[in-house]
User: Fold this.
Amino acid sequence: MNKSIITVVGKDTIGIIARVCTYLADNKVNILDISQTIVQEYFNMMMIVDMSAIEKPFDRIVTEMAELGEAMGVQIKCQREEIFDKMHRI
Assistant:
């Protein structure tokens, strides 16, 4: 399995989850786990996804997700699981 971590942070607006999930489905990314919270008016979502079936290069997915976030007024980051784990090791 080719796992990645996707984070979405920004002001809460209608349709954030729908637009992110639609992009993922259109690109054959399977959502394995998802957690989202809203603190006051700020949206925070973390997803663990399987990218084994993607047809585009990983870097292109990362760029397109960042552009999608920019268009929605949120920040979307996508990292491979092993990089995320090393960055957040205590």
In short: DSSP finds three helices and four strands in the chain. The chain has a mean pLDDT of 92. The helical segments are 16-26, 58-72, 81-87.
